[in-house]
Specification:
extended, Ribosomal Protein S8, Chain: A, domain 1, repeat, three-stranded antiparallel beta sheet, 44 helices, alpha+beta, 43% helix
């Protein structure tokens, strides 16, 4: 460092500094040192505000309440202070002076200290009382919200204030307490009363017709009046038919505003005259202007008010009101505005409107860009275009649009085609590829309607070419067929291949067909193949062959191998498992490392899979002592040993170390069960199986009883009643032989020995009774014409079985087919045979009375009449006991009619394929015929307004599809281009009527819903100062959400900066909107009553007042029930803080904020001083280091005013050592300049 240079011969003066400068005293909280030098305060930390305060006050002897005790410092005083401490939580110290006065030191939180002070003064100081008269209307301001203001005043003044209740007419307020407290409380009460005396409100009735003259154009007069008087003036808006004007504010301002309004009213009442003019209702909007701007303009320029008729009024009369000499000028302006706009129509078909508009409105923009005041309106349902605007501009626009319309009509045409909707997806193509290609290639517009209508629009050549291509495509599609191939989903991955390579080869091989696989979520095994008939058949055969190959190569078995041997089967680096896979051409899957499953799955051809299994087992056998044992268990016990779903046998396998237990297949007829695994585990499994088999053996004692097969049904009884009785009584199981058994007479009884013997005895007794009953069996015969034999033996002898069951099991034998005989043999008891003969004769009589009638129904309806899988016609057959035969649909030859037509063919020739034959009793045939005719579909038209069609269709056609499914009908709605008010329903007459009723009910519901929506769309607009919008919305929208829910309305607030940012729109039922408006206006009125106070708070302490994340300021706002807004960074005045709330709360909050400012400002200033001192110390250190370098001619460092220069303190001085408790005059404080007293 460069040393300072001292000129030769210059005298050196030592540095002399005072002790106070070098060693400053610590700052004191209450007293400021007379020496304002702030040096040394850098070492002091910033003070942190405390919520605990200490207050000292004294009760003179002459004002004390004496308790009769003569002991110094004792008596009830200490006990009373203890009680007060418990009640308030404050700490109290009491001191008795020599002059018998009491001094109290109270420490605690502010509210605790104030409450303790009030109680102390009540108990220890004599109380006075005073009554003051305050106007009754001011009492509520003294009380405050819920009496909070009064309670706070009582705390601060340590008094008890009694305010008369509301029903008491007295205006006297009583104050009890100390003289000082009473004076302070009285002062505060009178200040509050005086403030309220200055406020007033007035309501003036001024006829509505004069309100425009008071408000003025664009609210100019009203705003000027508010500014001049300072009063708030509320004039009802034009939409509210009220005469009352409300004024509120300071008394002087309210009276001045009232006087000025009344003066304007009286003046205009004398000067005004009226004139009425008829203007067509359609032109009223031009007189009113946007948001009433034209009316305001006329009032501004002429001073005349324009009164428009109500919106629902039929009359077109407009009334002008104002000075007589200005009415003519105003009338001219009204006519000028009314005729400033002309309306004209251009005839143009609705389908070319879109071409006139152009892509994204480009064409119409070119016309209107130079005509900004022209409005062009296109309507879908009308073949015209409406133009509105100034007459000159309308003529220009009309001329250009007419010219464009004529050109388009010459150039463009449209063609409509009817196509089966089933072909739409093929015409449109994937993602619209086919139809988009046609649009781009031929420059046409193609619209496809759900009903089957295709509309092509564009230039003549392009339209005809497109039509020709579509017709060719449709013919090709109609020649195609669709076929289903059943393929299990597990094969899809193999058929499709990686990235679709395999299926791509199939599609290239059969390039004329389309193959559709079900989606991943569809539980469907049907693959659809569509294309030309021959190609579809070839592709299907190819796919079926491919599936067969996959089935052969997807044989799968599971091989249980102990988990510890899996690693040896895999081999080092997977060598073993890879070798087995390559040699056997199989797929081998092992369980994951963490999986407890020990089963290895092998997939491939059957012989290859079995070879792989043996190789894997061989590896396991070589590694461990694996043995295979066979035990003999009768096959009848297999099911019980295996258990439901194999649970029992699996539990045995798990208990015995995972051994493999294999039962022989059913076809093998073997009784050997194989157990494979480690020797010890096999032995344990063997023992468990044998034990279980022995248990089953004990419970499977068997006995046999013989009974003729024809007697079995009598043993069983109706619905098994007889055999169930024997089973329940004995507990034995009884098994009858099946139709496939060789010996059909053996009945087997299984169970415990006692139960079996008991059941056997019961069965033998029953069989004996049946045999004795059938001892009188005889054989008889009867003659039945061969032409009736077919009816009895048809459907595997269904009729004969039924007769046999009804007639006691009688055996009936008809001649075999080919034998020309009418002899029928019956065998059984005499009574049964007679009953059977009688029943056969009845059936024959019915057969002879049967007729065959014809029912003519067009062949294209037969599928509908039959129903899915013929269930409809089967129901008719069983219901009416008839036979119905449908014709061969290929036989289209004309059928000669031999009687009257059924009315089923609409005038066309009857073909053989249209004739259905019904055979049965005449009555039943006629009923069946009618039932068939009732199934013939009919089509009816239902009148439904077109604008409801979309709602009937529903989202993605869901609703109309549900109607069609529910009533089994087909519903066709009007195409969008036609827009007919008709819906067509096709189906059976009954279903059509039911569907029609349901449709009409839905229409009624939609109409009701539409009316309800119209009622709910009532919009009510109210004007509210934008400053109030956040308060109406509430925190996180809580307030506005509650209003919306309470009244079921929608409330829309304007965006900030909108021209109508003061307009709030309420939408809903009219009654609800008014209720919601009342709630909002209630909030607005409350906000209007709030006071707004501006206070200057130093911006340096704003962050401290606000606190971390706003916690402190939120607490202040909650405590004082006010709203406090701090300035933003870009505001003009950074110190301006705005407080809003009730007047008392605002004043209290303001005082509190000012106190906080003073407290925090002191800390801020101290911090700034420390920062300056830190800079000064750095400078001082640099000078000091420079002085030390001058060793030559140095006289040392000189300090003046140190403690060593001061005298010792004077112990006899009353000033330096004051006495405690004496009532002496306080001496004047002398400054202490050092730590050991004043200087000598």
């Amino acid at each position: 460092m460069q040393q300072p240079v001292i000129e030769e011969g210059a005298a050196y003066e030592p540095s002399v500094r005072s002790y106070d400068d070098l060693f400053p005293a610590l700052p004191e909280s209450n007293t400021q040192s007379q020496n304002h030098n702030t040096m040394g305060q850098w070492n002091n930390k910033m003070r942190v505000g405390s919520s605990v305060i200490t207050q000292v006050f004294r009760v003179p002897f002459e004002e004390r309440k004496l308790d009769g005790s003569q002991k110094f410092g004792e008596g009830e005083s200490i006990q009373t202070c203890g009680n007060i401490m418990k009640e308030t939580g404050a700490h109290i110290e009491i001191s008795h002076g020599k002059d018998q006065s009491l001094t109290f030191l109270v420490t605690g939180k502010q509210n605790e200290v104030l409450e303790a002070r009030r109680k102390i003064l009540t108990h220890f100081q004599t109380q006075a009382s005073k009554q003051i008269s305050i106007p009754k209307e001011h009492h509520r301001w003294i009380l405050g919200k819920k009496g909070d203001r009064l309670k706070e005043l009582e705390k601060q003044t340590a008094t008890k204030i009694s305010v008369p209740p509301m029903n008491d007419l007295s205006d006297t307020i009583s104050i009890t307490g100390t003289k000082e407290g009473i004076e302070k409380a009285e002062h505060e009460i009178r200040v509050t009363s005086d403030q309220q005396s200055k406020k007033a409100s007035e309501r003036i009735n001024v006829p509505k017709i004069y309100h425009p003259f008071i408000v003025g154009p664009y609210n100019e007069y009203l705003n000027q009046l508010i500014t001049e008087t300072g009063a708030k003036i509320n004039v009802p808006p034009p939409s509210v038919m009220k005469d009352e004007i409300f004024i509120a504010g300071e008394k002087d301002g309210v009276l001045a505003a009232k006087a000025k309004i009344e003066a304007i009213y009286k003046q205009m009442e004398k000067k005004c005259t009226t004139v009425s003019v008829e203007v067509p209702k359609s032109q009223h909007k031009y007189v009113i202007g946007p948001k009433g701007a034209t009316i305001a303009e006329i009032l501004h320029s002429t001073g005349v008010s324009v009164e428009m008729p109500q919106g629902d009024s039929a009359t077109g009369t407009i009334t002008l009101r104002g000075p007589h000499d200005k009415l003519g000028l105003a009338l001219n302006k009204v006519y000028e505005k009314a005729n400033s706009v002309r309306s004209s129509d251009v005839e143009a078909p609705s389908w070319i409107h879109k071409y006139i508009i152009g892509r994204k409105g480009q064409n119409i923009k070119e016309i209107t860009q130079n005509l900004p005041k022209v409005h062009v309106e296109f309507t879908e349902k009308e073949d015209k275009i409406k133009i509105e605007g100034p007459p000159e501009e309308v003529e220009k626009a009309q001329e250009q649009i007419e010219k464009m319309a004529k050109d388009l009509i010459k150039k463009l045409i449209f063609i409509e085609m009817q196509v089966d909707p089933k072909l739409f997806k093929h015409i449109i193509g994937k993602s619209g590829a086919n139809v988009n290609r046609l649009k781009e290639e031929f420059n046409v517009v193609i619209n496809i309607d759900e009903s089957g209508l295709i509309r092509i629009e564009g230039h003549k050549e392009g339209v005809f070419t497109t039509k020709q291509e579509l017709e060719d495509r449709i013919r090709k599609l109609e020649n195609e067929k669709e076929k289903d191939v059943i393929i299990e989903q597990r094969h899809y991955k193999s058929i499709i291949g990686a990235k679709g390579e395999n299926i791509k080869e199939v599609r290239e091989k059969f390039n004329q067909v389309q193959i559709y696989f079900p989606g991943a979520g569809d539980k469907n095994d049907i693959v659809k193949v569509r294309g030309p008939k021959e190609d579809v058949d070839k592709c299907c055969r190819y796919l079926e062959k491919l599936v067969n190959v996959l089935n052969e190569s997807s044989y799968q078995i599971e091989v249980p191998i102990y988990k510890q041997f899996h690693k040896f089967i895999i081999g080092k680096g997977g060598a073993n498992i890879r070798k087995i896979r390559e040699e056997t051409h199989t797929k081998i899957d092992l369980p994951a490392e963490g999986d407890k499953n020990d089963v290895i799955t092998i997939t491939g051809k059957k012989e290859d899979v079995e070879e792989a299994r043996e190789k894997i087992r061989k590896i396991q056998d070589e590694l461990e002592n694996i043995v295979t044992e066979e035990i003999t268990i009768p096959p009848k016990f297999y099911n019980s040993l295996i258990g439901a779903k194999g649970k029992l046998i699996h539990s045995i396998m798990e208990d015995c170390g995972g051994v493999a237990i294999k039962f022989p297949s059913v076809d093998s007829k073997s009784d050997k069960v194989t157990i494979r695994g480690p020797k010890d585990d096999v032995d344990r499994a063997k023992q468990q199986l044998l034990d279980l088999a022995n248990e089953r053996q004990l419970a499977s004692y068997t006995a046999e009883v013989r009974a003729k097969a024809q007697h079995h049904k009598f043993l069983i009884g109706k619905n098994g009643a007889n055999i169930k009785t024997i089973r329940d009584s004995t507990g034995a199981r009884i098994v009858f032989p099946s139709s496939t058994d060789d010996d059909r007479e053996i009945i087997t009884i299984i169970g415990k020995k006692e139960a079996v013997e008991k059941a056997k005895a019961a069965l033998q007794a029953t069989i004996k009774d049946i045999v004795s009953h059938f001892d009188n069996i005889i054989e008889s015969d009867m003659a039945v014409e061969p032409r009736h034999h077919k009816h009895f033996v048809a459907r595997r002898g269904e009729v004969l079985h039924k007769i046999s069951d009804e007639c006691g099991g009688v055996m009936i034998s008809f001649p075999r087919s080919g034998i020309n005989s009418d002899r029928v043999v019956l065998k059984g008891s005499k009574e049964c045979i007679e009953a059977a003969k009688q029943r056969i004769n009845e059936i024959i009589q019915d057969l002879e009375s049967m007729i065959t009638i014809e029912c003519i129904i067009p062949q294209n309806h037969h599928r509908t009449v039959m129903g899915a899988k013929g269930f409809k016609v089967q129901g008719i057959t069983s219901d009416f006991d008839v036979q119905i035969k449908f014709p061969d649909r290929e036989n289209t030859d004309e059928y000669p009619l031999h009687g009257q037509l059924n009315g089923d063919i609409n005038g066309g020739p009857v073909r053989h394929c249209d004739v259905i034959r019904i055979t049965g009793k005449e009555e039943n045939c006629l009923k069946a015929k009618q039932a068939l005719l009732d199934l013939v579909p009919v089509t009816i038209n239902v009148d439904v307004p077109f604008d409801l069609h979309r709602s009937i269709i529903g989202q993605k056609g869901r609703d109309v599809k549900e109607l069609m499914d529910r009533f089994d009908v087909h519903i066709v709605l009007s195409p969008a281009g036609v827009k007919e008010d008709i819906i067509k329903i096709t189906g059976t007459p009954v279903n059509v009527e039911r569907a029609k009723e349901a449709l009409l009910e839905k229409v009624q519901d939609l109409e009701a819903d539409r009316k309800d929506r119209e009622l709910r769309s009532f919009a009510l607009k109210i004007e509210v100062n934008p400053e109030y919008h956040p308060k109406i919305i509430g925190k996180r929208g809580a307030v506005i959400t509650k209003i919306r829910k309470d009244h079921d309305v929608q409330i829309i607030f304007p965006k900030k900066g909108d021209p109508d940012e003061q307009i709030i729109t309420i939408t809903g039922y009219e009654e609800n909107t008014h209720r919601a408006k009342d709630d909002i206006m209630k909030i607005v009125n409350e906000l209007n009553e709030l006071v707004r106070e501006e206070v200057q708070i130093d911006s340096r302490v704003h962050s401290r007042i606000i606190g971390s994340r706003g916690r402190s300021i939120r607490k202040i706002m909650d405590d004082y029930k006010v709203d406090i807004k701090f300035p933003r960074g870009d505001d003009a005045d950074p110190n301006l803080v705005i407080i809003t709330g009730n007047e008392e709360s605002v004043i209290d909050a303001k005082e509190y904020l000012i106190n906080l400012e003073e407290q925090y400002l002191q800390d801020v200033e101290e911090q700034e001083t420390r920062e300056k001192q830190h800079t000064l110390n750095i400078h001082f250190d640099s000078n000091l280091s420079g002085s030390r370098s001058r060793e030559a001619n140095s006289n040392g460092f000189v300090v003046q005013g140190g403690p060593w220069e001061q005298r010792a303190p004077n112990t006899a001085s009353v000033t330096e050592f004051p006495s405690f408790g004496r009532n002496t005059e306080e001496p004047q404080a002398s400054p202490i300049s050092g730590a050991w007293g004043g200087r000598r």
